[in-house]
Amino acid sequence: SIPPKAQAEALVLQGLKDIENGFLDQAQSCLDQALEAAPNMPDVHFGLGLLAEESGDSGLARHHYQQATEHDPRHAQTHINLGLLLKLAGDLGQAEGHFRAAISSDPALPEAQLNLANLLQQTGRASEAEAAYRQALTLEPALAEAHQNLSGVLLWQNRIPEALQFALKARQFAPDSAATYNTLGAVYKATQQTGKAIDCFQRAVDATHDNAVYHANLAGALVDARRLDDAREQFAKAIALDAGLKDAHYGLGMLQLL
């Protein structure tokens, strides 16, 4: 007969394939059987965590990911997934700990460096974020999100030539990404290249119609070009998409005074 561990490994592999293909009931059956055969196997709990995420149950996902890390503290992908869930829940300290644990467990994993960098950027630690983005790009030079977000960090520090360099790299590796065009537009706006900024923000809006920030950014560039009616329209669209977007309310309010 097949040893329980080998049986569980085969069931986990099948369960992960089922999750990838959207067959969640079949995945549940496979992973439940795997859990019965090997209740302490980290990959079983990792699979159950993924399944819970796909099913929209973040609490159950966190439970299984925590089980996986208890059985294997060096399960890097579990640390990343758990960190992302904790970050989403606003627990940034614990999230950072899990991203750092992932890096410690597998220093060659660019996803771990990228997620740590994103959190560092979010918490205002620009120099640490820059170092982590650069490390991610050392590991995976074609990682568009790292190029894009590093450009944002550099722009915030007014390091314009470097910001432009990384924004253009992001476009090279993700030519259809709305976020990439939004980042490139921000660099062009900062350098008073208004026409290019409008083109980039328009590309971002066209690619993702329901992003309020992209509409507000396009409106700001249109103000710079003195296209005030078009700017009012874009600010109004931004507010319709996100009534709490302060920049859009401020921009539209300023235009009412003109």
- Approximately how much helix is present in the residues? over 70%
Q: How many beta-strand segments?
A: 0
Tell me about the largest β-sheet.
none
Cα end-to-end separation: 82 Å
Proportion of β residues? under 5%
- Rg of Cα set: 22 Å
What count of helical segments does DSSP give?
15
Catalogue the unreliable spans: none
Secondary structure blueprint with pairings:
Elements: H1 4-20, H2 24-37, H3 42-54, H4 58-71, H5 76-88, H6 92-105, H7 110-122, H8 126-139, H9 144-156, H10 160-173, H11 178-190, H12 194-207, H13 212-224, H14 228-241, H15 246-256
Helix pairs in contact: 1-2, 1-3, 2-3, 3-4, 4-5, 5-6, 5-7, 6-7, 7-8, 7-9, 8-9, 9-10, 9-11, 10-11, 11-12, 12-13, 13-14, 14-15
Features:
15 helices; 258 residues
Description:
This protein has 258 residues and is mainly α. It is built from 15 helices and no strands. It has helices spanning 4-20, 24-37, 42-54, 58-71, 76-88, 92-105, 110-122, 126-139, 144-156, 160-173, 178-190, 194-207, 212-224, 228-241, 246-256. The termini are far apart.
In short:
This protein has 258 residues and is mainly alpha-helical. The chain contains 15 helices and no strands.
